[in-house]
Write a structure and sequence with these properties.
232 residues, 22% helix, Metallo-beta-lactamase, Chain A, alpha/beta
Amino acid sequence: MKITFFTHSTYLLEIHGIFLLVDPFFSENPMFKKHNINCNKWINFFKKIDYILLTHAHYDHVCDTEFFAKKFESLVISNYEISNFFDNKGLKTYGINYGSFISFPFGKLKYVWASHSSVFNDGTYGGNPGGFLLHTDQGNVYLSGDTSLTYEMKLIPSFGNLKISVLPIGGVYTMDVEEAIIASDFLQCNKILGVHYNTFETIQIDKKIAKNKFFETKKELFLLNMGETICI
């Protein structure tokens, strides 16, 4: 399995040639303007997107869903309310909620609890926020979505060992670095991909300090550059 990070909480999973894009946030992302980065370069990076996973309805997680889903005829997987929202826009969707694992060609997917909020920019209710527990023959991954630290995370390893967990670390709206370390203990997972940091002024972190804090607890924090890929 390959994970390619792009920006904020946007990353791409590749599993046996199947591509899953998580929470696409390009066109309205302030990082591109701030660093004079050509947004279209990264939008045009994608050659294939089979599925789009959406954790909740905030614009910094869904703003480019319609563009990518129509361009690649992707299947949008999210909670029932978000799926209905995009179904009404003519997209192919698969609505789920907190419940059982569901089988897809890439593996099994379970929508899990996240402690956050969820509403579209136009005020439309975005259902319950969540994350995804992904089980594949290449390993299991926890995609937390935007969340605070929660005891619900202790349930995740009971379904199977995790190879890596994707956790927000910017604080204010989500966990910060210290809380993400506690979350990794709950998850019994020593490899963490950090997301949801440095995009906005309110969620700035020192990347070197963050990595050292994880290292001191014998864990590894991956903070990837735009377009950088790791294999798990």
